[in-house]
Design brief:
- This protein is an alpha+beta fold.
- The chain folds into two domains: 108 residues, no CATH class; 452 residues, YVTN repeat-like/Quinoprotein amine dehydrogenase (Methylamine Dehydrogenase, Chain H), CATH 2.130.10.10.
- The chain is built from eleven helices and 39 strands.
- The protein has a five-stranded mixed β-sheet, with no helix packed on it. Strands 5-38-37-36 form a four-stranded antiparallel β-sheet, with no helix packed on it.
- Strand 32 and strand 33 form a beta hairpin.
- The longest helix has 25 residues.
- It is globular, with a radius of gyration of 27 Å.
């Protein structure tokens, strides 16, 4: 019967058959809708565990939605009684729309939860529209005198604040009034997920401008560029975005910065002059293409700078040892004979290689200084382990399994030393967080978990801050507080996406993935948003930086400086980059 003609009076079954899918299709759609609701509201975790995060939920939701649409389309084409010309027209329309979308749209980036953002294919990337790094350098107005690069008590000269712990003590935000800070300046910036490091009124970061990866210095007071140093290099992936993603380290007025492709620069801060630089990948004989595939989202480790050394993640595989099998390689304790090297140390003054350490692929975490018994050491998170090394020789002290792969379920978060024999560590991808104890008997080390919970503090791209025995962090995008002694969750509330966090005294400053900055008390009691303001527009994965009362924020397109109100401020006479080492050395 022709479906375009009216059905005979009293015969409604034909109309139903023509235009309404049968019961089996409705059952399929209802089942898929129910499954989608279960996934979105976390019920699937009860069945298969905490491996499900928001990104996986989004993927499963997409698959279920596509399956529902496909089921309806198959019924329409194969079983409905619509005329062939209608079926062909609808099919052609769907094909044209898909082809047109593929032809004119590209995925510009994806969020931390794998939600894509689209742009037209003919649109230039934002970083390509900015002045080149060379042009930026020519615009720099720095005065050629080191006096303006003296350390100040306000400096935040490294990754995650003055002590590298995502915490700043000795100052308090004035939370008696709403956090509505004055915007001192806002300016376009090149692509990348680097944060700011500050020293003597200057802010240094890394950014991508076209085909150049640049280390750039801006005035905190005005936002004007002061100098730029660049190399021809570009890291770009759909999932990871464009540009460098580590934060510079500044010590004694010298800037140390590592790029996403392996360049390490040492720069005189007062002039922008390159003192020395290394291509780490070439220096260690690493297969560049294989390394880029293994560390898929770009090198993110920030330099650890001590009195004598610059210590950075190394990598692999090394072409000299291609004949070695991976399994055999893991049995050697000599990194000089390994396909993979975890850390490399360079002389801070000359750039000469001093030692290599570890035999495992790198992760996205940064090396940091700790004290074990009476000696200083370096702790770092490698691809599948957390390990500690002697700082003078690079010899391994101990390591503990911390599962991950740097091209899939990667480790990004920093460990935190809780006491002389304990550390906290966390990550996303269904692993969660743990506290481990470590002890030594003669030459043997014992590492064992105090507690480990896959559903606590799933810090995917971010880090925790520790305050009065509690850890605060974004657990798969939701703010969470956990008691460190017991592993007990105190609360979990407030979705901020895959953003970043910095504790200032007793207040948490959270930069949501959307760009908003939110203030929340750092207390195990019920969390309350004290205030919120829109600091940036668009996807923001970069860490915040507080230098005095200047809050510096940035993302892949813009940077800004806001004036926040402080209650009190400590006066620290020494270079802030030396504070951690000074405490560790007890000098």
């Amino acid at each position: 019967m022709n479906p375009t003609l009216p059905a005979p009076e009293g015969d409604s079954s034909l109309v139903t058959r023509h235009f309404i899918p049968p019961i089996k299709i409705w059952v399929t759609l209802a089942s898929l809708a129910t499954a989608t609701v279960l996934v979105r509201y976390g019920w699937l975790e009860v069945i298969i565990g905490d491996v499900i995060d928001q990104a996986v939920r989004n993927i499963i939701t997409l698959i279920l939605s596509f399956t529902g649409c496909l089921s309806l389309f198959i019924w329409f084409i194969r079983e409905s009684d619509f005329r062939p010309v209608i079926k062909k027209s609808v099919t052609a329309g769907v094909v044209v729309l898909v082809v047109l979308a593929l032809a004119v749209l590209r995925i510009e980036r994806v969020s931390g939860d794998l939600v894509p953002q689209f742009a037209f294919r003919w649109q230039a990337r934002n970083d390509a529209l900015l002045p080149s790094a060379a042009t930026l350098a020519s615009l720099g107005n720095i005065k050629k005198t080191s006096s303006i690069w003296n350390a100040t008590p306000d400096d935040s000269p490294c990754f995650l604040g003055p002590q590298g712990t995502a915490s700043i003590d000795g100052i308090e935000l004035d939370t008696t009034r709403s956090l509505s800070p004055r915007c001192i300046w806002k300016r376009p910036i090149g692509a990348g997920w680097s944060g700011f490091a500050t020293y003597g009124g200057h802010a240094v970061t890394l950014e991508q401008r076209g085909n150049d990866e640049a280390i750039t210095c801006y005035s905190i007071a005005t936002g004007e560029p002061e100098w730029a140093v660049s190399v021809p290099a570009r890291h770009e992936t759909v999932l990871g975005g464009i540009g460098p993603r580590s934060t510079p380290t500044i010590r004694d007025g010298i800037v140390y910065a590592t790029g996403a492709t392996g360049w390490l620069h040492t720069i005189e801060g007062s002039t922008g002059e390159v003192l020395w630089r290394k291509d780490i990948v070439a220096d260690l004989g690493i297969d560049r293409a294989a390394h880029a595939a293994a560390v898929a989202w770009g090198r993110a480790g920030s330099p650890l700078v001590t009195e004598q050394l610059v210590i950075v993640p190394a990598g692999g595989p090394r072409t000299e040892f291609d004949a070695l099998e991976d399994d055999a390689d893991k049995t050697t304790l000599d990194p000089k004979l390994s396909r993979y090297i975890s850390l490399v140390a360079y002389d801070r003054t000359s750039g000469d290689q001093k030692w290599v350490a570890g035999t495992e692929q790198i992760s996205y975490a940064s090396p940091q200084l700790i004290r074990i018994d009476d000696r200083k050491a370096v702790i770092t998170v490698n691809e599948g382990h957390v390990a500690a090394y002697e700082i003078t020789t690079g010899n391994q002290l101990w390591q503990s399994v911390w599962p991950g792969h740097s091209n899939s379920d990667a480790s990004c978060s920093q460990p935190h030393i809780l006491a002389s024999d304990r550390f906290f560590i966390s990550k996303g991808y269904g692993i969660g967080s743990a506290v481990f104890s470590f002890s030594q008997s003669k030459s043997n080390w014992t590492i064992k978990p105090v507690w480990q919970q896959s559903n606590l503090l799933k810090t995917k791209f971010t880090n925790v801050s520790i305050h009065n025995g509690y850890a605060y962090g974004l657990s798969d995008g939701i703010l969470e507080c956990v008691e460190l002694s017991s592993g007990k969750r105190m609360w979990k509330k407030g979705r901020y996406g895959q953003g970043q966090l910095l504790r200032v005294g007793a207040t948490l400053l959270i930069q949501a993935e959307s760009g908003d900055v939110v203030a929340v008390p750092a207390t195990p009691d019920k969390p309350v948003e004290l205030s919120r303001f829109p600091a940036l527009d668009g996807q923001t994965w970069n860490n915040l930086c507080l230098s005095g009362n200047n809050l510096l924020v940035r993302n892949a397109e813009e940077a800004a400086c806001y004036e926040v109100s402080l209650k009190q401020q400590s006066v620290l006479p020494q270079d802030a980059a030396q504070q951690t080492e000074q405490v560790l050395s007890d000098e």
